[in-house]
Amino acid sequence: MSKTNRIVLLIIVVVVIIFLVMVVSNKKISTTSGTSESLRVSSILSLTGPAAFFGEETKNGMELANTNKQIDIAYEDSASTPAQGISAFSKILIGNNKDLVIVSLSSVASAVMPQAVAAKIPVLQTLVSASDIASKSPYTFRYFTSGGQEAPIAADIAIKNLGAKKIAMLYSNDEYGIAYFDAFKSRVEESGLSLVGSETFTNKDTDYRTQLTKIAFTKPDIIYIIALDKSLVAIIKQVREMNIKTTLMTNWILSNSSVIGSAGSLVEGVYFTTPSFNFESPDLVVTQFRSDYKNVYGKEPSAYAAIAYDIVNILGRIKKSSGDSGLDTVQKIKELGSLKGVMGDLTIDANKEITFKLYPAKIENGKTVTFELK
After folding, report:
1. From CA 343, how far away is CA 362, in angstroms rounded?
2. Around Cβ 319, how many Cβ atoms within 10 Å?
3. β-bridge partners, 339
4. Residue-wise pLDDT tens digits, 194-240
5. How far is Cα 155 from Cα 347, in angstroms, rounded to an integer?
6. Full set of structural domains in the chain with CATH
7. Which residue intervals of 36-174 are DSSP H helices?
8. Helices and strands (H and E) in the chain: how many
9. Kind and range of the H or E element at 225?
């Protein structure tokens, strides 16, 4: 073989090798693009600040559900403030865990929503009660009760079951409290009545006697109270100390062990609404969750932990494909439809609200007793 022929043959061999390398590489790329993987998620929780109890319970529930690492979770602290929540979301934007962001608390969720929409990142909100918040963005889900869902039930209890004619309300002056106030007031007025009094407070307040004195002057049959756990306990305690003789009503925050444990007999006779999780349930899903939680954390779980547990199990069903957009992830969650969770039978509606049923209830002899609406 001549030198020229050897050179030509060498060139051909090199070309063939390059071609084969390209074919194999393309095949690998094609295979990779067709695979799916778990979501990489960030969670902005109130791990410090006045709502730290909620953050702790939420994180505990998530960690318990994620022992098999069905999703990748990174945690950020909002310190229970909108400003810190915005800072946390900005940090997430430059990180890797941004397939979806879980955000807790109404004020924080409202503050970070513009960032999420601009970045086209799906957000799952919890402990958020502002009305219709999930429908305000194509990227937003909510798994929690809203003022629009819960407050009308409370109004119906007051008017239909208890026959109240004079109703007053004391609520926190933030997105959470205002959502309940608007929905409660609307249902009361639909029934042909009007609130005889309404007063507000901030989450930094500890003395509510001025507001309670004004409300007591109207001699209401019922006072509907919307507050976070520590504030709720303090308000009920001051009502009892002031010897205000009226029926008290609140939302399902009352049924958490942190509230009942702190308030003790002070909450006897208080009416509220509650999910099935907060009264004895024979469901094996619930009993297993309670047992696992107590074994790991040494205490009974709250409903906030149960919701967080459900959230991780919901997101664990979602597999991300290469090239998926935020809206692709949203669509995959919507397509899950009805689910069974620790909080009961869950539904995902057209507005991306993940909801569970609430029941009328009352504290009797230190226990939650449910009843039917009239």
Report:
1. 19
2. 12
3. 346
4. 999 999 999 889 999 999 999 999 999 999 999 988 899 999 999 99
5. 24
6. 37-145+282-357 (3.40.50.2300), 148-250 (3.40.50.2300)
7. 52-65, 82-93, 106-119, 147-156
8. 12, 17
9. strand 222-226
